[in-house]
Amino acid sequence: MIEEFKKKLECPADELAFYTKEPMNRHTSFRIGGPADLLVMPKTERAVCCAVKAAKQAGLPLTVLGNGSNVLVRDEGIRGVVLCIGTEYGAVHVEGTAMQAQTGALLSVLANEALKNSLTGLEFAGGIPGSLGGALFMDAGAYGGQMADVVVSSRYYDAETDTIGTLTGKQHAFGYRTSAYKDHPQWVALSADMQLKIGDPAEIKAKMDDFSQRRRDKQPLNYPSAGSTFKRPEGYFAGKLIQDAGLMGYTVGGAQVSEKHAGFVINRGGATCADVLALIDHVREEVRRQFGVELEPEVRLL
C-alpha cells in the first residue's frame, strides 16, 4: 500500500519526509492518538499537491493535518496517508501592509512577523497554537479578532480536478468555526494573502502581551489539550454551563474537565481517545439534562 503511494509520487523525494507507523500523539497538542500508516511532511507546494494526488491515485484515505492543535486522534490511529503540513512549509513574506504565507506557518509566527513590521490586525493570533491552514479551515479567532478580518485571498489544490484554485473575499464563506474549506474537503489550502494596517509597535506588543497574560491566567496551558472543547452555544458560554453543571474536575481515566477553565478538557497524563470521548459524552448529557442546551464539540475527531 505504502509502496504504491510512493510509486505515484511525481516530485523529488527530498521535498517530503516519510514516517511509517508514526504515533500521532507526537503530532497533536492533546498528546493522544495511535499510529498513522504513513505520515508525510511536505517542504514545497509541489510536494503538497503531489502527495494529495498520489494518495488519490493509490486509492488511499488521506487526512490533512496542520499543527494538530484542534484534533483528537483515535486510539487505533489513522489509516492511509496523513499529510502533515508543518513549519517546513511555512514561509512568510511581508511587503508593505500585505502578508503572504504558506499554510504550514504557525499563527504565532504570523503575529510576530506583523509586530516586527509594525502591522496591526493579527494580535489575536499570537497565542493560538494552530497553523495558517487550520485557521483558514475553521476561521480561527480570539479576543474579538478572526481570520475573516485579515484574509483577502487564498490558494488551494483541488484533488478532484488536479488544479490549483483561488478564493477571494466572501468566497471563503467564513463563519463561526467554519469556512469554504470545511465545506470542500477535497481542497487543500496552500497559501493565503492577508491585508493588515500600519500600527504603533508599542501598542501592538502591549495588546499581544495582554492577550497572552489573559490566556495564562484563565487557561490550563500547563496540560495537553485541544483548546476549547466545545463551540459556543448561542446565548451561552460552554465553560459557564459546564461549571454550573458541577463538572469542573470531572475525570475519566487520564482525561479531566479542567479545574481552571471548564471549557477545556485536558490530558492529565496517559489519557486515551476513549477517555476523552467518554468525558465529552458525559458533559454533553449533563448540560442537556440540567439546562436543555446542546453542546457541539469544537474538537475534530480523526
UniProtKB/TrEMBL annotation:
Its cofactor is FAD. Pathway: Cell wall biogenesis; peptidoglycan biosynthesis. The active site is at R177, S228 (proton donor), E298. Residues 32-209 form the FAD-binding PCMH-type domain. Keywords: Cell cycle, Cell division, Cell shape, Cell wall biogenesis/degradation, Cytoplasm, FAD, Flavoprotein, NADP, Oxidoreductase, Peptidoglycan synthesis. The keyword Flavoprotein applies. Pfam families: FAD_binding_4, MurB_C. One of its GO terms (molecular function) is UDP-N-acetylmuramate dehydrogenase activity. Its EC number is 1.3.1.98. Belongs to the MurB family. Cell wall formation. HAMAP family: MurB. This is UDP-N-acetylenolpyruvoylglucosamine reductase. It comes from Butyricicoccus intestinisimiae. The gene is murB.
